[in-house]
Amino acid sequence: MTIIPDLHPRYKSLMTRDKLVAGVEAGITSQQGLIAHGRGEAFDYLIGEQTLKSARRATEVAAAMLLAAKKPVLSVNGNVAALVAKEMVELSELLNAPLEVNIFYRTEKRAKRIKALLEKQGANKVLGDLRNAVIPGIEHSRAKVDRDGLYSADVVLAPLEDGDRCEALVNMGKKVITIDLNPLSRTSKQASVSIVDDIERALQNLILAVKEDKKAKNDLAALSESYDNNENLKAVIKEIVSRLKKEDLR
Ligand code: PTJ
Fold first, then answer.
1. Which of 118, 227, 87, 106 is nearest to 162 (CA)?
2. How far is ligand 1, taken at its centre, from the CA of residue 250, in Å?
3. For labelling, which of 38, 71, 107, 223 has a CA lying 20 to 30 Å from the CA of 216?
């Protein structure tokens, strides 16, 4: 791992890159995951590396939806495992929801390593081994999931998800919550709730929102019923544009 001085102006971003490189070296993250992260970073620059108001709103709705779910399931891929394994385990405990390893560039070795990492962080229910059910409408190997997990879930948290699979899950009648820095991605447009934020910031905020909702006993149904994802994505773009207009480019 590179030694990065903590006074470096890009300290946080460089540390995150190092976590992903370590993920690749440990056989947890795919090489393509590094490229995907680069795309995310570019959007984070436009956003100003902060949580937008619209992302906060989506996060609050996501928390309410997950708490009101009968069978929530949290999907984990190689980037998510490298960056927020501990937080995904905490969220899974708070919601009493299983984690399911579900990866795009599938190898059995990588899936096993992700599962082992989650268990090392304290997870006691990690699905994704059985893959005894198929999501209709997508090509076979990516369609395989656990019958007791993603297949039968009513609400799915699928961060950094691929657009086709997001659409297929929505077509099955599920509510899909995604975390994706690109507000224009197919995933962001297909999802029921798109949190346009960095995965590390989003997970921290989501955990806080779930804890607050649990304490406050808010009207969870009302929170998510009044939400329109398309309108919220438009609000994201407005916030980005108005930020860029104010940016001093000299
Ligand atoms: O581990 P695997 O095999 O499941 O592969 C995982 C990746 C992410 C490589 C795979 O799902 C993939 O190729 O994803 P895409 O289609 O490139 O989409 C990833 C999306 O996540 C892009 O729209 C990025 O902008 C976004 N993204 C990347 N890094 C972050 C992010 N969003 C939030 N936080 C990030 N740190």
1. 106
2. 32
3. 71
Ligand 1: distance of its center to the CA of 218 in Å? 32
The ligand 1 site (C-beta within 6 Å) comprises: 30, 32-33, 36-37, 39-40, 43, 77-79, 103-105, 160, 162, 179-182, 185, 198-199
DSSP per position, 99-162: EEE--SS--HHHHHHHHHHHHHTT-S-EE-S---EE-TTS-HHHHEE-IIIIIT-SEEE-TT--
C-alpha of 179 from chain center: 4
Confidence (pLDDT) at 142? 82
What is the number of the ligand 1 atom nearest to the C-alpha of 16?
Answer: 36
Can you list the domains of the chain with their CATH numbers? 53-241 (3.40.50.12640)
* Minimum CA distance residue for ligand 1 atom 20: 160
The whole-model pTM stands at 0.95
Taking the chain (250 residues) in runs of 10, the rounded mean pLDDT of each run is: 69 90 98 97 95 98 96 98 98 98 95 98 95 92 94 98 95 98 97 98 98 82 88 98 81
Phi, psi at residue 71, to the nearest 5°? -140, 75
Nearest to 175 by CA among 235, 210, 132, 224: 224
